[in-house]
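Reopening closed ticket. The problem is back. First fold of the pair:
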Amino acid sequence: MDGNKIMELLTEAKLLYTRIPTIGNKAARDSALQPIKSRLDYIRHLISPYRTDLIEHLDHLLRHIGGAHATRPTQGYIPQKHRIWADRAWIVLEREMRKIQHSL
């Protein structure tokens, strides 16, 4: 497992996430999420043989980035709440990925 590659993918995904507009066309927002989802899915593929515990964090992040941009059902929560949860999930994933990066 290449910890540097994982961090690079996570950093790219987060940068793309920060550039998604919170208003406007839902289809455009959903389209903008696709490269992020692709990177996170690839991270899942890279870490799943080693750190299955992080899959839950990836799922949490994916669920809330969709809710933050109202591209998936929000389970009754406002998009801003999903954004807070997504931001927390980014922090947890970055922390855990740095541990992986430094342990290899």
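Second fold of the pair, where the issue appears:
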Amino acid sequence: MQITIRADEGMWLTDGENYGKTISLAEGVAVDDYYEITNEEYEAITENIAEEI
């Protein structure tokens, strides 16, 4: 059974490595592995990643 989770408006889902507005969970991955972060948090994270490249 495929489980898909969606972030609330203005939020992103993450497990600390993967980010998305909609996530289709792989087999063996729990919904509880993902949590929501704000758009501002996501932008800060992606800016830091871009600076490292």
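Update: turned out to be a display glitch only; the data is intact. Strands lie at 3-6, 11-14, 19-20, 22-25, 35-38. Residues 8 and 45 are 19 Å apart (CA to CA). Please close again.
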